[in-house]
Amino acid sequence: MNNAAPRTVLAARGVARAYGATIALAGVDLDIRAGESVAIMGPSGSGKSTLLHALAGIERPDAGSIRLDTGLCAPVDVAQLSEGERSRLRREAFGFVFQNGLLIPELTAVENVAMALMVNGLGRRAAIPVAAQHLASLGLAGMEDRRIGQLSGGQAQRVAIARAQVTGAPVIFADEPTGALDSRTGAEVLDILLHSTVRQGRTLVMVTHDEGVARRCDRIVRLRDGRIERDEAATPAPAVGMAGAASPARLQGDPPAEPRPSVAPSPWTYRDELRPQPEPQPTGDSQGAAARTVADRSTAARS
Amino acid sequence: MSALSIAATLARPDRGRRAPMLLTVGAYAVVSAIVLVVTAGALSFAQLEGEFAVLYGSLAAFAVVLLVVPVIVLGAAAVKLSARSNDRRLSSLRLLGASTPLIASITIIEAAATALAGALAGVALYAAAAPLVGLVRFQGEPIGGAMWLHPGVVAAVAGAVVVLAAASAAAGLRRLVISPLGVRTRATTPKPRWIRAAIVVGLLVVMNLAFANLAVFQDAGVILGVLLTGFALCLGALGLIGPWVVRVLGRVRLRSAETPDRLLAARSILENPAAAWREVSGLAMTTFVAVVGGSGAALVDAMSRVELDPSNGPFDPTARFFASDIMTGLVITLVVSFLSVACSTAITQAATTLDRADLYDGLDRLGVDQRTVERARVRAVMTPAITVSVIAAISSGVLVLPVLGFTMVMAPISIAVVAGTVVAGMLLIRGSVSMTSTRRAAALARAA
């Protein structure tokens, strides 16, 4: 049995960012360990979105360092990477779920998920079946060809979650992922997000205003005026608006997303993860059964 | 009065609106200058005398009519961009409880004011271009002072541009939903039907038969009437078949799309084939005019060489210049038409990138290379542009097949000039797509 402490995936030291005279981050130190879920909370203007953007390489901080060490490749300082390198990092090592989904409206659900693989170099014919498997594992079998406008808010967020996990990214960033949803749908989406990330060994960093959502995570980091005010273990809250929420058992199979080490590592290459899994071969009438078969096969392929 | 004062308050440009506003004013300036130059050129033929005077006048009027479509498309694109660049302000007003008539009044006042600024700039552009265009020779002499229009005509043209812009804005508002949460376009995208293609094929067959048997009609006026009617019908047919062709093209492209930019381009064409067609419709019509007009001009050129042979007896002195004048008029029409299409492409793309700025910003956050998005946007415009041009060229070539074959042998230089103009026009349109950038739009969205 291995009792070693989980690796620190992200280590921020003295991260500072200002917009003109407004200080958004005033020297933040933060460690995020592999496989944990961290909620970043704080009042408006406290710097929580800026911190998430800095950790994810969306914005470069004015000062400080952000060490990324996924164990799959050599550690890098995100803050020192060029614009192009940060883009590549976001594409290959991170997954994102935003409040408004940021899905491409003219693409179908499956094409939106496949797009994450395609921008990493996989052809569409190979990417579509993999994307379809992930959609099925999140309960969206049969909705692959729907446009985003034909999906409900909760379904669209599931598509966004599938897109975030399809590349096998070890770190998922979520910015108010349930903010635009009603409480019941929000709880379902949160369940799915936690199930498909943390419970698959991935790391989840989430910005939220919702105390109930934050308490579903392992840790809550509270910001005020660009500084960490408190960093505490989350205490589970009684479920509010959770009636009927999707439990993991209700999902149609586990997402096939456990990351594994890259065979031919470039600084943060996960391209081997993008290889398509064998196409599902349903053995029964139930889509759920078919999805489980695929998920089981994917899990077996990794072990 | 309150609409006027609110519009005046909203008129203060900010960083995000400066570029779209300049583009809109520039578009109206180009439209005004084009209309003024073409009107001056057409009116200059009124001073001609002799056998060809009526023919010159008719052809000039025809050229003016041909420019109506690209100029209207350009005006409509300018209106859309104007509304898009102002959407946050209009939404805020809606949030404050502004009524629909008030919002409509503000939009129309803004469009008219922008068009007025553009029209004034257009008059300046016309004044700068008139001496240069005056060097163009018709009937062996430069147009010269005939390029200067009466101030009353100039004022009438500028006024017409403003009125048309206001009317377009009023019509365009029906397609926009301005709510407190933002401005969006009504999603009414009827599927183009194959029956349109059948109608067009039938029309082409009939017109081809009519054109092949023109000798049946004895009177030159009737022949000209048949030619112009056939021409107009074929242009109308292109409008009918265009959206259907673009949709089929999108589907074919989608099936073979393996890379992100190809997939995005195919899907964005299929999202609204009618809109994709509108963007390139002026180009299809211009190509159609180029092939039919080019064949006609080359035919006249070849025939004039026979007629002007001294051994064939005396000839009207104006006939000596007729062939080269037809070619000059055609090339000018093509250049002006391509300019209009390029301007409307730039304007439409500016409106589209503004529309999708949040998405471009989001894709950038996800790590999608901006070059991929940019390539997709260029493909979404240029693929239909090239395809409809080729289809327009083929269908018009079929229409005038005997003439085209004859002129390719007898007057290859004339055909080469027209083909060169079309290629230059396509390059101009490709350049106009590059005037807007998804990167800039994403940066604007982030700043907002």
Structure described in brief:
The complex is a heterodimer of chains A (about 300) and B (about 450). Chain A is about 30% helix and about 20% strand.
Keywords:
heterodimer, A: 303 residues, alpha/beta, Rossmann fold, six-stranded mixed β-sheet, four-stranded antiparallel β-sheet, 8 helices, globular, disordered C terminus, B: 448 residues, mainly alpha, 2 domains, two-stranded antiparallel sheet, 4 strands, 80% helix
The CATH superfamily label of chain A reads: P-loop containing nucleotide triphosphate hydrolases
Order of helices and strands of chain B: HHHHHHEEHEEHHHHHHHHHH
Strand runs of chain A, count? 10
Structural class of chain B: mainly alpha
Q: Overall mean pLDDT score of chain A?
A: 78
How far do the termini of chain A sit from each other? 17 Å
What is the CA-based Rg of chain B, rounded? 24 Å
* CATH third-level topology of chain A: Rossmann fold
Number of helices of chain B: 17
The largest sheet of chain A is:
6 strands, mixed
Instruction: Determine the strand fraction of chain B and express it as a percent band.
Output: under 5%
Instruction: State the low-pLDDT regions of chain B, or none.
Output: none
CATH architecture of chain A: 3-Layer(aba) Sandwich
Determine the most extensive contact between two protein chains.
Answer: A-B, 27 and 21 residues
Strand % of chain A is: 15-25%
Overall residue-averaged pLDDT value of chain B: 78
Name of the CATH first level of chain A: Alpha Beta
Describe this structure in words.
The complex is a heterodimer of chains A (303) and B (448). Chain A is an alpha/beta fold and 303 residues long. Chain A is built from eight helices and ten strands. With 448 residues, chain B is mainly α. A two-stranded antiparallel ribbon of chain B has the order 1-2. Chain B has a two-stranded antiparallel sheet with strand order 3-4. At the A-B interface, helix 2, strand 6 and helix 3 of A face helix 10 and helix 13 of B.
